[in-house]
Each structure stands twice: as C-alpha cells, then as structure tokens.
Amino acid sequence: YSLTIFLVWVSAISILCCTPTKERQPKKEPSPGVNDRGYIVKVGDHSPDFSLEFPDGSTTSFEQLKGNVIMLQFTASWCSVCREEMPHIEKEIWRPYKRAGLKLIGIDRDEAADIVTRFGKQMKISYPLSLDIGAEVFHQFAADGAGVTRNIIINPAGKIVFLTRLYDSLEFKEMIRVIHSQLEEKNNLGIKGLLNKISALQSALSSGPYNSTATYDKKRLLMKLKNELRKLDQLQSYLNRNKPD
C-alpha cells in the first residue's frame, strides 16, 4: 500500500513538472500588421495624422506640429510603469530639450479632463498632457489591447524614427540619443538655410542701388536673418555642451 502511494505521488510530481507554464508555452504570434510589442506602425513609417485636445480645451494636431522633432508619450494615471517613467522624461528629456524646440506631449489614455489634470500635478511634470477619449489616437499607433506605456519619436519630415515599450533604462538612453541627434540635424539644416539666404542678400546688396526703399528693406531683412542665425548658433553650442552619454 505504501509503495502504491509513493508511485502515485511520483507520477503526480512528474505531471506537474512537465506541464508547460505560461512562460514555457509557445509565444502567441501577433495579429497581421501588429508587431510583438503591440505596434501597428514601425520605424520609417510616416506618422498617422492625429488631433489632440488638452484639458483646458485647447487643441493641436500633427499638421501643426510637423516640422519639429515630436515625442508622443502614451500614459495613464492607473499605469505604474508610466508613473515610473514620467519623472525621467521630465528631468532627462523635457527640461534639457524644450529650449531646443522639442515638442513633447503626454497622451493620457481614455481618462476625463479632471483626472488628467490631477495626474499631471501628482507627477510634478511641466510638459503638457492631452486627452485621448476612447483611445482613438493610441489606436492609430498601437493595437487594440496593447499596453499603454510607450513613446514615439517623429522627425521634422513626419517619419517615425524611434519606438519604445515599457520603461527600460538602456532603451530610454538610446531614445535620448535619437532625440538629441534629430534636434542637432534640424538645427544644422536651419543654419545652412540661413547662411544661404544671408549670402544671397549680401550679393544683391553689393550689386544693387544704395539708397532705394528696396535696399533699405533688404538691409532690415539681413539684420533679422543674422539675429536668427545667432540664436541657432547659440542653440548648437548648447547641444554640443549637452551631448548624451
């Protein structure tokens, strides 16, 4: 009888040990068009068009933001990983790069305006949080049922250049490097464009009449362009001094 009980016990243990756990089971393949991180977009894609409304009733859109380096941060007050990540976004991305022209918007998934406002205050963030009632904007980038914590970096041409999922410190640092690089590239293109305009104006002034109204207007424009160039040069110096590790 004891031997029988022992054999039954061994058999039961064997069955338990060989039963696949959730982690051991084959990974479920994502639906067509959805990657294994829940995105329905990929790096290199043109960003979907989107519109955003803020708790105060003001609005913005992709069309208005395009031409800048854009960061969209999907979040929610009930998301613990979002709460872990947001102080890093505030300190390591928003504060250093808002002066460089980064357009950063947190997009709160399907929560009322008063909750979103309170959430922003609780997290002590200074970057704007927008509403996403019905998760309509979220579902332009991620699949139905996908987790909320994710960031999307869009370049001035409107193309997606980086995607994150959850909060991983190494991936987060890489995202900062991508943002920095995109801002540098945008600034360098701005400097080149201004230098070309200044050169063309100087050529026109050197060959044109000296006392006409048109000449006076060109001189005023030249002064304005030089002031803009000075600002971009200062910004470039700032970016050079604050390169990420």
Could you describe the 3D structure shown?
This protein is α/β, with parallel strands linked by helices and 245 residues long. It folds into 2 domains: 31-178, Glutaredoxin, CATH 3.40.30; 180-241. It contains 7 helices and 7 strands, in the order αββαβαβαβαββαα. The strands form 2 sheets. It has a 5-stranded mixed sheet. The chain is elongated, with a radius of gyration of 26 Å.
In short:
50% of the residues lie in helices and 13% in strands.
Structural class: alpha/beta
What is the count of distinct domains? 2
- The N- to C-terminal Cα distance equals 69 Å
CATH H-level superfamily of the largest domain: Glutaredoxin
Q: Helix segment count? A: 7
Main location: other
Keywords: Cytochrome c-type biogenesis, Disulfide bond, Redox-active center
Subcellular location: Cell envelope
GO cellular component, one term: cell envelope
Which helices and strands occur, and which strands form pairs?
Elements: H1 2-18, E1 51-53, E2 59-61, H2 62-65, E3 70-75, H3 80-97, E4 103-109, H4 113-123, E5 129-132, H5 138-141, E6 150-154, E7 160-163, H6 169-207, H7 213-241
Parallel strand pairs: 3-4, 4-5
Antiparallel strand pairs: 1-2, 3-6, 6-7
Helix pairs in contact: 6-7
Features:
disordered N terminus, alpha/beta, Glutaredoxin, 245 residues, five-stranded mixed sheet, two-stranded antiparallel sheet, 2 domains
